[in-house]
Amino acid sequence: MCGDLALLDGLDGWPAISRVVMVEAGREKQGQLTEQTRFYLSSLEADAQTFNRLVRNHWGIENKLHWMLDVYFAEDRCRTRKGNGADNTATLRKMALQVLNQQKDKESIKSRRKMAGWNDQYLLTMIQNIKF
What we know:
Layout: E1 19-29, E2 32-42, H1 48-73, H2 85-102, H3 109-118, H4 120-128
Antiparallel strand pairs: 1-2
């Protein structure tokens, strides 16, 4: 973590930036170690432990979202590549997941998705219950 930004160029348009945070992350999967270094710009005046907690929380949410998209929508198997197709389908999957998560019944997301595909009334009820 560095609070001395005098040596960094290009921060003129970012007057609130007070820290550059470097996070070194590693994970082991199937005996293979992967290491990654990420940098963050921050306006938060905090210690290293706080930044570590915030970064870990952020990636925990990202990983959970990716898991849900892959399990419920098979996102990793999607082969849409042309034009804006990949971005458009990713946006639609995320919107659908939000609608599925807003339902207040005791069904699983998988069941809600199936019921919405089979039952037009259930789908209409889901759409009418969308909260913005």
